[in-house]
Write a structure and sequence with these properties.
Shape: elongated
Number of helices: 12
Distance between the termini: 29 Å
Helix content: 55-70%
Strand content: under 5%
Length: about 220
Amino acid sequence: VWALLLAALPPGAVSRPTGEVRGGTPGGGREKRSYAALVAAGAAALDADATHTVEADVRRAVPGAAGYVAVRVGSAAATVTAATATATAAGAPAAAANGGAAPAAGAPAPTPLTQDALRRVLHAYAGHAPSVGYCQGMGDMASVVLSQAPSEAAAAAMFRTLMDGYGFAELFAPGFPAIGRWLGDVDTATRAGAGGAALLDGLAAEGVPLEMVADK
């Protein structure tokens, strides 16, 4: 489902020309450079501070050794595979281990979520959208996409669609342009509710900016 949802731009998304600020070419399938070329371009484009942030986020998003494998969210494939392996080791038929149902033929195995793989996906996006580069927090999103993708290259394409097509690039781009718009929406919606204006005015009187409580 993730791969299908992120295979193309969402309905109503505005396509931007190549090289435009805030994400470059939107959509996973529209980037003409190879995954390897994007990884190399991104690794070369990031400055020392961004590279340090990538490394910190990669270690946080993928704890432990490089062989760590994440289980797909909401997928029974990993459970079926684990049950089959246990049953095989015990000499029992695979179907019995899965409650009488054999594993689906051709079911994709979870994509290994390693630190190296996540680093490459993040570098690939930086190569695709140097105007965005890398910002703390992108790794958390990319790690989820990577764990749902059939391959690293597919994860990079899916992540581009998430960032460019769904507007997350503007959340992480320099100056964080999306945050200003979203805070305006929060202010408007809060003031439209009962007691909302008094709440915001009271916070302002105490020196508490909306940014501090907007996520609540």
